[in-house]
Amino acid sequence: MKDERVRVVAHFREEGAVLAGTQQGFCEDFDIELSLNGDLPKEEILKLIRLAHQMCFTESALKGTPQITSRHVYNGQVINM
Q: Which residues contact 23 (CB under 8 A, 6 or more apart)?
């Protein structure tokens, strides 16, 4: 491979009002473009592309439902919500 690039565009939107306490943020979608330059046979390129998708931590997290743990600290003290 001579040149590899990944371009990711994320689309987000917001609804509601901050002062009313109804503000929410939403992730609509992600557009991923993997660009490769080289002289490998097409079969090897396809295999590399599949592996790239399989190995991508971010793509895996976005496709699944990972556990999210939140902790809030203010002035060094944990705030229980």
A: 14, 15, 16, 17
Q: Which CATH superfamily is domain 3-79 in?
A: K homology (KH) domain (3.30.300.20)
E strand spans, 1-81: 3-15, 24-37, 72-74, 77-79
Give the global pTM. 0.67
User: Domain-by-domain residue ranges, the chain?
Assistant: 3-79
Is residue 1 scored above 90 in pLDDT?
A: no
DSSP state of 19: T
